[in-house]
Design goal:
This protein is α/β, with parallel strands linked by helices and about 325 residues long. The chain folds into two domains: about 240 residues, Alpha-Beta Barrel (TIM Barrel); about 70 residues. The chain is about 45% helix and about 15% strand. Bound molecules: flavin mononucleotide (FMN). The site of flavin mononucleotide has 21 residues, from strand 4.
Amino acid sequence: MRALTDPWQIAGHTIENRLVLAPLAGIGNWFVRLQARRYGAGLVVSEMVSSFGLKYGDERTLREFLRIHPDEHPVAIQLFGHDPEAMRAAAGIVAEAGADLIDLNMGCPVRKVCKTGAGASLLDEPDRAVALARAATEGSGLPVTVKLRSGQRPGERTGADLARRLVAEASVAGIGFHPRHASQQHKGEPDVALAAELVEQLGDVPVILSGGLSSDERALAAFERTGAAAVMLARGSLGNPWRFARLVDRYAGEPPAGEVVRELEWVIDRCEDHLGIERAGRYLRKFYPWYADTLGLSKAERRELVEAPTTAAARRALEGLASPLAA
Ligand SMILES: Cc1cc2nc3c(=O)[nH]c(=O)nc-3n(C[C@H](O)[C@H](O)[C@H](O)COP(=O)(O)O)c2cc1C
């Protein structure tokens, strides 16, 4: 019987278990990935990075998006774009930055991305999608995986068809499959039966399942029902890296408040190091509600933290939370 704690292989890399941190735009930077690895994720994927941005990017863009911590390997950097030549160049830059794998985004439903011909719009342009995957492989020399959806619109299976072509014609090393169609965005039940079918069809090529894995039970059930090589935690892991630890049997139960507070302090420290104190204060505001949820705070109890305008104010709010809650 397969277990989430079993190791698996992707293009010669041994991944220590079946849990993957999903790509999360505006979130999946090096310290969020490092946190997931600390708590037990076997593989981590970056937020999506523009291939054009890398090709023409300034020093700071490159430094921030391609920053990789020595302890987060194995790590995949996710690229998006529609132009094979830009993809080739960007993939080379990613390889130089020290990534272990490249993941290509062919599932993002956001209009701004799709109207450039990138993300989920590639589901309707399979020839271009294959050319992009080939260019990324050639430009980097790294194994390339592709994350995609079941299709653009309800009832479509273009994503599964494209996955098979990418394996056959571009030798992609794995498929991240989010079996919701793009028009669903992130709502609705993922089609696990379609995922199970794709797993069967791709044989030895690993399918990493994404979508709706918001609880430990759902992640485990989807892993078992689909036969996927691994599962990707996305929204279910925000402010809750303990989910990784529980699913690989390294933790039991809910973390005590003091532990959650210390973890958020760890995040604040890393973010200040990454972006500087001022930018960190703005950037982290989206993180605080996630940790407030994990702490189980009421609206009144969380106010000071979620409205903290600076990291100093957030630290003060946390001091206030740690003592009464940890008692
Ligand atoms: C805020 C946010 C950002 C995301 N960014 C990316 C991204 O950069 N690349 C990508 O392939 N998917 C991205 N996704 C999709 C997730 O990786 C995942 O497939 C999706 O959230 C479904 O999983 P869930 O229902 O368990 O959250 C994003 C999702 C969210 C909610």
